[in-house]
Amino acid sequence: MAMQLDSCFGSFFLCIFCFAWFLTFPAEAAVRKYQFDIRVKNVSRLCHAKPIVTVNGRFPGPTIYAREGDRVLVKLTNYAKYNISIHWHGLKQFRNGWADGPAYITQCPIKTGHSYTYDFNVTGQRGTLWWHAHILWLRATVYGAIVIMPKEGTMFPFPKPHRETEIILGEWWNSDVETLVNGANKMGLPPPTSDAHTINGKPGSLFPCSLKHTFSMEVEAGKTYLLRIINAALNDELFFTIAGHNMTVVEIDAVYTKPFTTRVILIAPGQTTNVLIKADQPPSRYFMAARPFMDAPVPVDNKTVTAILHYKDIPKTVIPSMPKLPAPNNTNVALSYNKRLKSLNTPQFPAKVPLKVDRHLFYTIGLGANPCSSCQNGTQLTASLNNITFVMPKVGLLQAHYFNIKGVFKTDFPDQPPVPFNYTGAPLTANLGTSLGTRLSKVAFNSTVELVLQDTNLLTVESHPFHLHGFNFFVVGSGIGNFNPSKDPAKFNLVDPLERNTVGVPTGGWTAIRFRADNPGVWFMHCHLELHTMWGLKMAFVVENGKSPEESIIPPPMDLPPC
Length: 563
Fold this sequence. Notes:
With about 575 residues, the protein is mainly β. The chain has helices at about 10-25, 175-185, 330-340, 395-400, 530-535; strands at about 1-5, 30-45, 50-55, 65, 70-80, 85-90, 115-120, 125-135, 145-150, 165-170, 195-200, 215-220, 225-230, 235-240, 245-250, 255-260, 265, 270-280, 285-295, 305-310, 360-370, 380-385, 390, 435, 440-445, 450-455, 465-470, 475-480, 500, 500-505, 510-515, 520-525, 540-545.
């Protein structure tokens, strides 16, 4: 039996009705079918209208609803002028990289006029994830939520909310994003920052022509609500808060956490955060607000996006209260918030942290500049891991691996940087060239990996949110300055570290993660700042097959897009 929910997205209250219907849907409905039509639609924001790429004409796109254990089929048909692929961010896609979505990593893109069905199982996961385009900068408008309910009869490990909604944070450019990016690349420079941030596609009433483009959520006094918050912004970590109200964090990246109460959360591009809020303030109207966190000398869109928490029966003429957001460069708030995040680690939801490590990796994160005769300053800004700027292939890496196609990639990505140096010392502005290559790291099946990601002061230090496809990982340690391999591991949290799929490496610091390589395939790892991904701050792991067919990559689907 299949379930079609595309009609759910006409309005907020219709969504609530559809979601309630989903919760009561018979347990045997194990296949969820969706149709994603990639279409261009004219959309107006900030007094500007422009054509944007959408799914089903919606911005943001439709929410995927499923239950743990379900099979999901999403048939995507491309009616736009751009090639397209969709990544189901945070879904592990066990043995099934063909459904993961990053263009030229696990598939070639879907060309104009063609279709492809993403066919995947939701195994051992429940919570909030999201989907987005994974080619060019198309995820500026092509994105949406994934809501995975627990198995039938399984309760949340926190009080049941009265209602819930998705809060998707994004960015908006008045001009065509691909035109801006192409122009910047020709000059070797970054494109302009966005003109606004958005909440559910709307910038909020602080911006011109935006009174009708303000998301509003109605609440009843005394009731508790679940917010599924997603950062779909391309380049900005964001502080998020609600005037007058506490938030209780209960889940990160579709993994339950030890609950804690906070007035503000920090959420990086690619991350999700579930919070409970109680409508326990005097009935009125309150702004939700978000703006960037940036504690390095890097330009960002520093304007504040707002939405409204609206108590029932309060007139819309009441001016909402504005919350106090941390200063954009408030490192202390960012670090202290991240330190509070821990796995729930109960018998039902254990933290299975690898205690023995088979492979130790140390990757340096760097910006750089390579010669470019046609660029404005004779150089092209770039980025690298272990001084390697990743070059995208013209054939999907997973196809090349599965079919043993020679000459597409090498498996010699180094476990350590080529030259040790004082990574976070004074800014380094000379010898900024990087090596170019499609170089991957081969990992034995079921081996345990510890990876330390080290920020560097090549050009400048900066915070970097890193996403690993195909896996969750445990954030066992983090610090400011240079990682000390003789002292820092003794401080690792191996009991209840946070489990997630996207982690921020602090400005001028390091983060250590551990994971078990039990998912065969080719799995992308990259900075989730789109600018840095474009500049080459990415690589991929080739996880070898195990000994049995059940530990090996499944065969590709018949409709896999050709290159």
